[in-house]
């Protein structure tokens, strides 16, 4: 990648590639991810309905006494009405499933734009320290980004469907996931540094093994240091959980692969255009 390219050009290229990648990832999520989300929500709603049925039976039993029925305590009717109203309000989702499906593409497009901007910024500085050609560098950065930000956190804290997880621990789980992302970036940075150290070595096996070993050591230590989180109930279908996680990983792989390929394509096209202009100007 020529050093004469401005940051603005790279940023526009990253935003365009990120937008396309986000829309493609949204399409993959809609096709292979939504059915699993719907199945998980159905399980969650069935469990909630079963849990609500138990208090109703107890209520009927208590209501059997004629005295309690004929002489309710002051304010009991108002309290019951307030409870019913709150219950009905709680059942209404802020955003319907149709609205969530429609917003899926908007969310992935915005995520792709943000990721494309970050990716272009990293590329702008990485080209100064790399001897790789522009397309190869673009693909390499996309692969390393997926490895650090998606793969490393995923294999420690894999994605869970809506019916899985304790709402009270969501803040803790989010912080642990962010910590795993930071450690993934650290592992990739250490591996890149190790690769630079052994770049002049005559043995190909050393040039491959050194960064790979450095990466695995950092990731292994990180996995041991971070606490485990397992909130999947024993009654949740294992096949649905597995399929949901695979679809989540596929969506993220699509996002990063499309981003790298799109950026590499636009880079090659820009280089060809500059070459054609240079030849025509002679």
From TrEMBL:
Transmembrane segments: 12-32, 102-122, 134-155, 175-194, 206-226, 246-266
Any one Pfam family match given in the protein's UniProt record, by short name: CbtA
Keywords assigned: Membrane, Transmembrane, Transmembrane helix
Annotated region (Disordered), positions in chain: 52-91
Cited InterPro entries: CbtA_put
UniProt feature, compositional bias: Basic and acidic residues: 59-72
Extent of Low complexity compositional bias: 73-83
Protein name per the record: Uncharacterized membrane protein, predicted cobalt tansporter CbtA
Organism placement in taxonomy: Bacteria, Bacillati, Actinomycetota, Actinomycetes, Mycobacteriales
